Amino acid sequence: MDASRPWHGAVRDYPTQDPLASLEEFRARRARMQDTASGWPQPRIGFACLWEEVAERSWSYSAWNLRAALRLATDTTDIGVQIPHLTRTILQVIHARRRAGRLTSTWMYSRLTDAYIARALRRELSRNPAARRCDAVLTAFFQGDLAVLPVPFFVYTDVTWDTYATMTGGTGAGAALLSMTPSSVARRRERQLDIYQRATGIIAQSRWLARSLVEQTGIPPGKVHVVPPGISAGWAPADGNLAVGVPARQDRRQLPQRAAPRRRLLFVGSRDFAKKGGDLVLAALAVLRREHDPRITLTVAGPRTWPLPGAPPDGVRFLGCLPPHQVASLYDRHDLFVMPSRMEPFGKVFAEALARGLPCVARDAFAMPEIVTPGVSGALVSGDDEHELAATIAAALADDALYERCHERAAEIAEYFSWERTALQVCDAIAQAT
Q1: What average pLDDT does the segment 3-9 reach?
Q2: Same fold: 39-230+418-433 with 252-416
Q3: 39-230+418-433 adopts what CATH topology?
Q4: CA–CA dist 87, 112 (Å, integer)
């Protein structure tokens, strides 16, 4: 493995395909389900998630939307856990530590939290009559290790401790980023492996993760299924609850044409700015404004505060943390989405941008090549060279054919990356194994 590019061995030479290659299969599956005379079987599912205090924000809105979609697709019972505020606070205080001069808490990865979640899930399974009638339980959690359950259960996840170590350059580096010790990460990894071995099936959000599950973690291939998630930004009805996916048919006339000259770049990264490649985008912007066009601008959304010392540089507009429906409106007001993420389990923001006809520049790593196809939906960069990124951005902005392709494909991208499709494929995976 190339030490300077820790993801290299887990991605290179791994075949990817354009996401729309699976669209017709989804349409046929949906048609069979809608034909009530076909008697298409649907499993009864218990849905288990560790809900955040604001439940719809859990797992960046993914858990909330997946549960809503499953409820439309099949008989679904919520058996999730929401830790009360006082209990959460106590756990945070118990596991508070000062590392590198700042106070952090690893309560989410503690044995106490694990025990609390496992006990709550088992209690719900035993006392909820609807849960006892389920064919299987689906656990949805951002690191895929919620608990071992005494019934058939499936795990839906975008990252594992093995892939996290790959993305960060090793167990030690990954532990430092999470303010954990290497021994604690090793314990989490062993616990996750035990859960996966006992699970009926593992549902990975990407082919990249599925390959890692088989080759790195040692899960039998027959237990691994691939079901990409839907997209969450921009569809919030009046009652405040996020809608399920996007409309199956999208009017191309409502999409912006983005005629030349194109100068408006967009970066959306809700977590660590450097992990998402934000510093690299700023460096590339400086090259672009100096060597190509001084009127090129960049909008940054996601971080709660400006993530670097000083004020945002010239040409940069910083919007802070925005709700999904406001992020969605940004896609229509920009010409190119740029996020060469150094650590990206999946990358739903790319699908969100493409669903509005906005081309993307991503990194040739992790699951990003499964969403962004060079020359068709955007471009990929290979490293951390701001000149390479600047040249890639400039070429994309000038490529009229690329914009035409993205405009023509937007409706089908939106249809494919819907939570409806995710829910139906999850039902299929569970039905096949139970």
Answers
A1: 40
A2: yes
A3: Rossmann fold (3.40.50)
A4: 11
